[in-house]
Design brief:
Blueprint (H helix, E strand, L loop, with lengths): L1 H21 L9 H8 L5 H9 L9 H29 L5 H29 L3 H24 L7 H23 L3
Amino acid sequence: MGSTIFLLLLLLSLAIPQFIFQQRLNFVKGDMDLIQKTCKNTKYYDLCVSSLKSNAKSSKADTKELALIMIGIGVANATATSYYLSSHLLNATANHTILKKVLKDCADKYSYAGDALKASVIDMGMESYDYAYMHIMAAADYPNACRIAFRRCPGLTYPPEIANREQRLKHICDVVLGIIDVLGW
């Protein structure tokens, strides 16, 4: 299963940028000024600027491409969290079936979040910003089910590492939503 997921991610990393960057906009290509101007319209300016500055493609990106770069960061976050949870599932003791079920549900929810973000890439390519917005909001909401699953099970506590990952994904999604707002759909 791990090799299948790795192959899928590899194929997506090769296909998505080609699909995305073939779509040219009439916006003026930006630089760091565009990044800062765009990020000022998001809830998490520092996260936005630092994330975009860490990607070499950002300096030549237009606003739509900045959103796509942030979506890619969100996909990576959701995928890494799903893998993290799956690895903890494998390490869970055999007699702790409740924990295994919760970890499996959580890994699935983060996988769904990644899928929703990938769907938003397609929406962005078709300039269906309303659908992209919807998929990004769904991606931000999927981790809630993980937190709730831990709460529902007596004796289980929501691990701080998962809580931090949940917050990070939500913040990334909020940044993307702010950038989409700039596109003026």
